[in-house]
Structure formats: structure tokens, C-alpha cells
Specification:
The chain is mainly alpha-helical. The protein is built from three helices and no strands. The termini are far apart.
Length: 85
């Protein structure tokens, strides 16, 4: 099974948790559309059919993922203008 990149998965998890806390439920008490969309995407990304299982899988995968640190981009050092060897 393909696994989502940890950065993408972390973003989905963070967005889902924010939507659960910040989005109002609809008239029937069900989660709002953004929360439902994120739940679906988490399920697809983790190969599950239940958002609770998707959250468990996402958290488990993120805990096992190596720490991702940005690779520094080397900055070329230019010689000052007018300096001759």
C-alpha cells in the first residue's frame, strides 16, 4: 500500500483536528462539510473506512516516521566587486 508523505499526513491531521474544533455541525448534528471532506481524505490516505481508525493509523505512522528536517539550500558566496587576485 502506498503511504502518504509524513508532511502531507501531518497537514491533514492538523486540518482535521482544527475543523472538528472550529466548524459548526450541520442542522442534523453531523460534522460540517470541511470536516467530512478531511475525514474522507484521511480514510483514503490511510486505507481505512472509519475516521477513528484513520486517525489511529495516521498518528501511528507519524510517530514511526523519521524526523523531517528541511535540507538547507547552500547560498553561493559572491566575491565583492572590484577585488582582483
Amino acid at each position: 500500500m502506498l503511504m502518504p508523505h509524513p508532511v502531507v499526513l501531518r497537514g491533514l491531521l492538523d486540518e482535521y483536528e482544527a475543523a472538528v474544533l472550529g466548524e459548526r455541525a450541520d442542522d442534523t448534528g453531523a460534522p460540517g462539510p470541511r470536516t467530512r471532506d478531511l475525514a474522507y481524505t484521511l480514510c483514503v490516505s490511510t486505507g481505512t473506512r472509519d475516521v477513528a481508525r484513520a486517525l489511529e493509523a495516521a498518528r501511528r505512522w507519524l510517530a514511526a516516521a523519521p524526523a523531517l528536517t528541511p535540507t538547507p539550500v547552500p547560498v553561493p558566496v559572491a566575491e565583492p566587486a572590484g577585488v582582483a587576485d
